[in-house]
Amino acid sequence: KLQIWDTAGQERFRAVTRSYYRGAAGALMVYDITRRSTYNHLSSWLTDARNLTNPNTVIILIGNKADLEAQRDVTYEEAKQFAEENGLLFLEASAKTGENVEDAFLEAAKKIYQNIQDGSLDLNAAESGVQHKPSAPQGGRLTSEPQPQREGCGC
């Protein structure tokens, strides 16, 4: 199970964002390929992530709006180089078309799992961002019977 926090990268949420870094096993840093200003903020966000997470936290750099190639303001090569220099995984995606969106989350989960397998993340350390819980009991029964409607607001 993954818990995802979308902090929107806005300065007004920066103090709140810092609290989410503590205990995070992974982070997705997303910038808009059509707005260089979002790319230019990556260094300060990366500094926060590095200072507030454990050294083995998985960080993936994602260039969003890959569907807007004609409006591109940050080259693929430039972002890839930034990612390589900083030890980040990198991909471009499009939230609009869905291109590489699922892949970003799957890559993060796979890399976190790999870090657990090779001992880079300690399941017993709270700061690892990973909680080990026993699996559900085996032999449970699923039912296809419809659940009764409840009265009142379902929200």
Helix-strand blueprint:
Layout: H1 14-21, E1 26-32, H2 36-40, H3 42-52, E2 58-64, H4 76-85, E3 89-92, H5 101-117
Overview of this protein structure:
The chain is of the alpha/beta class. It has a domain at 27-122: 3-Layer(aba) Sandwich (Rossmann fold). It is built from five helices and three strands. The chain has helices at residues 14-21, 36-40, 42-52, 76-85, 101-117; strands spanning 26-32, 58-64, 89-92. It has a three-stranded parallel sheet, with helices on both faces. The longest helix has 17 residues, at 101-117. The model has no long low-confidence stretch (mean pLDDT 80). Belongs to the small GTPase superfamily. Rab family. GO terms for molecular function: GTP binding; GTPase activity. Keywords: GTP-binding, Nucleotide-binding. Residues 128-155 are annotated as: Disordered. This is RAB14, member RAS oncogene family, like.
Q: Name the CATH class of the domain at 27-122.
A: Alpha Beta
CATH fold annotation of the domain at 27-122: Rossmann fold
Amino-to-carboxy terminus distance: 23 Å
Structural class: alpha/beta
Number of strands: 3
Give the spatial strand order of the biggest sheet: 1-2-3
Largest sheet: 3 strands, parallel
Number of helix segments? 5
Unreliable sequence segments: none
Q: Give Rg in angstroms.
A: 19 Å
Q: How would you sum up the global shape? A: globular
What percentage of residues falls in helices of 4 or more residues?
Answer: 25-40%
Assess the beta-strand content as a share of residues: 5-15%
Mean pLDDT: 80
Order of helices and strands: HEHHEHEH
CATH architectural category of the domain at 27-122: 3-Layer(aba) Sandwich
CATH superfamily of the domain at 27-122: P-loop containing nucleotide triphosphate hydrolases
Family: Belongs to the small GTPase superfamily. Rab family.
Protein name: RAB14, member RAS oncogene family, like
GO molecular function, one term: GTPase activity
Region (Disordered): 128-155
